[in-house]
Amino acid sequence: MKVAVIGGGGAGFFAAISVKTHHRSAEVHLLEKTSKVLSKVLISGGGRCNVTHACYNAKDLSKNYPRGEKFLKQAFHTFQVKDTINWFKEQGVELKTEEDGRMFPTTNESSTIASALLNAARELGVEFRLNNPVTAIMPQQPGFHLKILDNDVFYFDKLVIASGGSPKLSGLRWLEELGHNIVSPVPSLFTFNMPNEPITNLMGVSIPKAHVRIRGTKLEASAPLLITHWGMSGPAILKLSAFGATELAQTGYNFNIQVNWLNNINESHLRTEIEQQGLLLESKKVANRNPFNLPSRLWTFLLNRAQILEDKRWVDLSKKELNKLVNTLTNDDYRVEGKTTFKEEFVTAGGVDLSNIDVHSMQSKKVPGIYLAGEVMDIDGITGGFNFQAAWTTGWIAGQLK
User: Fold this and answer.
1) 127 and 228 housed in the same domain
2) What is the pLDDT of residues 260-297, one digit of tens each?
3) Cβ–Cβ under 8 Å, residues 159 and 29
4) Same structural domain, 106 and 15
5) Which of 85, 124, 195, 293 has the most CB atoms less than 10 A away?
6) Which residues contact 209 (CB under 8 A, 6 or more apart)?
7) Is pTM, for the whole model, over 0.85?
8) Is the Cβ–Cβ distance between 121 and 16 less than 8 Å?
9) Is the link from the previous residue into 142 a cis peptide, with omega within 30 of 0?
10) How many domains does the chain have?
11) Residue where a domain terminates, one of 341, 362, 386
């Protein structure tokens, strides 16, 4: 049996390894259109590679995927986080878990993960073919002819397509021409640009947990927040960008967000807390008495935003000033005008419609003999190792060639 795996990323490598693991006599060719493989693996996680996430329940794990939750909930019963950990351990790679659940190699080097994949594929006899873009797929019943570099035509019995996400619909047209339904791609995992908001002067300030809501939608998230020189980032923003990928694209990335800097404390609870702490009886200056443990630069900024003089004493706050401060802390409003890709983690929502794919085998329901893995499907996760876990899971199942 001759098998072509199209795509030299994480999903493609894992699929090729899986094919050789389950079908030792198969002749496996991994076709990559560029001169490099595993590029995303090498740059992810700031060069440390966030391999997966320490979430061992399939149902809970699947909730981290804005698109593909139900599909992956089934797939994770075949190959999930513990399987990923065990596979890398068999390759001599130990993973460690950080406080937020993200898992990295103990070496803190993404090259450790790339080397493990490369070595495993080589040892199993996978043939690498770089600078080999597939320009046409011609079903033969049975098998397929692949046109490579617009000249050479090769026959394969089975195909695994792991070519990754595409920023434009045109990049998925070849799959549509094979009969697949395509969900139009839009960016996911991006940060919010706020070019006209002075809060950008606080670049580098982070808040352990804030509640952010996108006005006019049901999108909201409570998580750490980071202020950048262009706007806002951090887990809260990235989660909103992922779950709101389609909805936010329709706004042209122009919308308003509401920030509760105290996370789960609403206006009435905040008033009660201010009274219980006796703040309104204190003679200390408001600027010097920060009762909510907010970063000092942010506290000063919010006081100015609430139009409260820094040398004003708590005891001298008027009812109007108190109302303004409470509202600023719990319902702060900002205008978003654009987006920026999160570091090097380019992720798209969209791809081959999951209704076209058998979850138990990853085989196309439209073209038997074609299997799909990774982001080429309409699957994407939030940041934290979830996109790689989806790549390992779908690649492993696809490689079984059921």
Assistant:
1) no
2) 999 989 999 999 998 888 988 889 999 999 999 999 99
3) no
4) yes
5) 85
6) 222, 223, 224, 225, 263
7) yes
8) yes
9) yes
10) 2
11) 341
